[in-house]
Amino acid sequence: xxxxxxxxxxxxGGNGGPWGQGPRxxxxxxxxxxxxxxxxxDRLKRVLPGGGGLGGAGGLNPLxxxxxxxxxxxxxxxxxxxxxxxxxxxxxxxxxGSFDRQAQPGLNYRLPYPIDEVYTPKxxxxxxxxxxQIADDVxxxxxxxxxxxxxxxLTGDENIVDIDFSVFxxxxxxxxxxxxxxxxxxTVKAVAESAxxxxxxxxxxxxxLTQARQITETAVQELMQSMLDGYGAxxxxxxxxxxxxxxxxxxxxxxxxxxxxxxxxxxxxxxxxTYSNRIIPxxxxxxxQITEAANAYRDRTIAxxxxxxDRFTKVLTExxxxxxxxxxxIFLETMESVLSDMDKIIVDENTxxxxxVVPYLPLNELARPQSSTTGAAQ
Length: 378
Prior knowledge:
The chain is α+β, with helices and mostly antiparallel strands and 378 residues long.
């Protein structure tokens, strides 16, 4: 990777790197050689027989010199040619400022600084950034000081909503994370705020405050991931969590009144809909009942008329066959129908005066119950 691809130019000296920033985690710096030799000599004096030292009465001790050299080489080789990667880290090795390889957790080999340079970002640690508030003194998110500059957002229906939320993210590409962006935490926070403002700006305030919280979180997470992938940030957003979604404090009382009015409106509408659902079926049932009764009356009247017409036709046919007999039979049947329920007095037409009344035995009166006869007598 050429150094000129990053802001800051080439080496800046001191702790600076080829990308204008110091390494986040590098191997140990080379120790002072004189201090190392002095410490080794002190240890040999305590270990070697005869008081030790690099030289005795006869001059320089070859065994002691060899031991010092072996210890020095081993110590320098361990510190200069190896580095350790922790289980939650991933080693990124640069050779002359250009990416060379990745080192897995454990003890790994490298060339001395400044030939090889090692970065060890924590790739399994779940990072968290919060937008809209600052954590309290003990680090509890959701209980700290609110930041209106970050939390106040304009919705699609031109209302203002106060939103605090947290973003959880991990490193999924250590090379891109180290060399494509500067100050990753601030970058993720800026992307999170931008994505949330865009999603809120496309939504109305009512769904955000009520049933659309999960939808909002998912939309912001997808938009953030798309933006970070476009930057080549090497960051994976694992979760977006809304901490607080409220109207601004200055208008929250008025907003609650509006919410209460809307709730009353919905309640009244539901009651009216319930009444409508009950009345309309009853009215339809009554209308159906009246219609069926009218149809039955129509069918009965038509059937009776057709029956009478058929009866008249049959009587007419018989009358044409024997007019005298049919006329007499019709007369007798008519008189029987008329006089059957009437009181009758028989008068002989051949006599005049009161003597013309003919007494008869009313057998039908004798057949009536005794109680009815007694009541009639009284």
